[in-house]
Structure to design on (403 residues):
């Protein structure tokens, strides 16, 4: 049987891989998106919600995905309250109207976002291929992907293979690329709760002695809570009443009482960076390249900037007839991503470390740091620009231009 040939195979059809497929879809290239389940999840199948920065929303709109998300499925954030413990010590506020924007960011569901991306992909020539990456062979000009599971023996050949297959990337392993990994020794519990005193456009980031708690508004009286805890497994096992009681004590009373909660999901908290993001004929993006602590909701937003820069460069190379699978070209892409990834990693890791320790003098210092941020408009603006994903230089997709 003849091996199917594509210009680019994207392995992994999560948020990042699907976004890249869409960003390349209008170019005169043959693109294949490979995933064990390359389709939109059923609505509400995954309750996780994400903070989408202003810049990322603009990029998703440029891709034609954002307008497909129904107004009931996203919530604009007009205010972010960042505080120590119950919000009475150190405190800083970011307000959209002070910064002259309609929203600081948006909260939307993983399922709604994936559904929008796949609906848009359905109107393109991108091949959606069901299958699991099982191995890799390379020669000078091509990469050949071997499929696993029930498709053993099946292959796909391409000029460039993109590994967008998440934190445990099989593409990365097949290239022999190791990782630098830090385990925060905590897990995140994610749950959607109803609250008695909602503030539907305010998001909260609380730094408690046990780890950060984010509360993200998802409409009406509902909030998604992302709670980082060393004893997350125990919290997951609590009955609903006890869980809500624990959550209320940890978060404080800014949203009144915690009412009903959805089933709790648990995620390990790590920071991981692949030692290289490129190998012959291969490039890693999104969580396959770098995984962050979810504090401040930066992971997908950062992966989307990989997408924007890679798509822009592939478009330039394709127009100029340059080989975008060539080693020097790939290394150049990796260099272009270094500063943003390093700065975003430092930002999230720094937040976790600054606010983690239990020591009283440090607690006082972090309260002071927050009050300082609140009092210095320049510093506050810097924090806001990063939170909104609008830090220059912005790639084309983030400026509303298709690559
Ligand atoms: C609790 C929590 C909250 C978060 N909140 C936010 C937030 O508010 N904002 C934000 O920006 N980020 C957030 N993140 C980070 C965000 O979830 C990730 O950065 C993002 O989902 C990474 O997308 P990805 O497509 O790179 O990887 P994934 O979402 O992991 O997708 C990988 C894809 O690869 C496929 N795959 C895996 N193995 C193979 C294989 N062998 N062959 C083919 N396909 C394969 C999988 O099926 C999957 O579809 C959060 C993370 C956590 C844990």
């Amino acid at each position: 049987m003849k091996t199917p040939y594509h210009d680019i195979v994207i392995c992994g059809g999560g948020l990042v891989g699907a976004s890249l497929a869409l960003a390349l879809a209008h170019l005169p290239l043959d693109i294949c998106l490979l995933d064990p389940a390359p389709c939109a999840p059923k609505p509400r199948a995954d309750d996780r919600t994400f903070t989408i920065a202003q810049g990322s929303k603009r990029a998703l709109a440029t891709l034609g995905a954002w307008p497909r998300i129904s107004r009931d499925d996203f919530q604009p954030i007009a205010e972010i309250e960042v505080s120590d413990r119950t919000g009475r010590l150190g405190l800083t506020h970011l307000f959209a109207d002070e910064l002259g924007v309609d929203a600081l960011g948006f909260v939307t569901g993983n399922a709604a976002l994936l559904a929008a991306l796949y609906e848009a992909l359905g109107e393109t020539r991108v091949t959606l291929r069901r299958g699991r990456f099982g191995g890799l062979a390379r020669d000078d000009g091509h990469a050949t992907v071997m499929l696993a599971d029930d498709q053993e023996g099946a292959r796909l050949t391409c000029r460039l293979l993109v590994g967008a297959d998440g934190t445990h990337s099989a593409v990365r392993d097949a290239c022999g690329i190791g990782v630098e990994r830090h385990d925060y020794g905590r897990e995140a519990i994610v749950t959607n709760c109803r609250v008695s005193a909602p503030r539907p456009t305010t998001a909260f980031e609380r730094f408690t002695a046990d780890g950060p708690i984010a509360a993200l508004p998802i409409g009406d009286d509902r909030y998604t809570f992302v709670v980082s805890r060393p004893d997350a497994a125990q919290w997951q096992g609590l009955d609903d009443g006890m869980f809500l009681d624990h959550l209320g004590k940890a978060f404080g009373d800014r949203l009144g009482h915690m009412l009903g909660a959805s089933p709790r999901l648990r995620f390990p908290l790590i920071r991981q960076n692949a030692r290289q993001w490129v190998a012959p004929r291969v490039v890693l993006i999104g969580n396959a390249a770098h995984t962050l602590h979810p504090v401040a909701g930066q992971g997908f937003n950062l992966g989307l900037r990989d997408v924007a820069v890679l798509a822009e460069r592939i478009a330039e190379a394709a127009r100029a007839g340059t080989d975008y699978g060539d080693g020097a070209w790939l290394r150049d892409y990796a260099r272009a991503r270094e500063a943003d990834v390093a700065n975003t990693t430092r930002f999230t890791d720094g937040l976790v470390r600054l606010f983690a320790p239990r020591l009283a003098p440090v607690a006082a210092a972090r309260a002071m740091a927050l009050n300082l941020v609140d009092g210095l408009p320049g510093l506050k603006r810097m924090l806001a620009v990063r939170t909104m994903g609008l830090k220059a230089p912005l790639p084309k997709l983030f400026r509303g231009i298709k690559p």
Remarks:
- Residues 11-17, 34-36, 50-51, 132-133, 164-166, 170, 188, 190, 226, 267, 286-287, 294, 297-301, 303 surround flavin-adenine dinucleotide (CB under 6 Å).
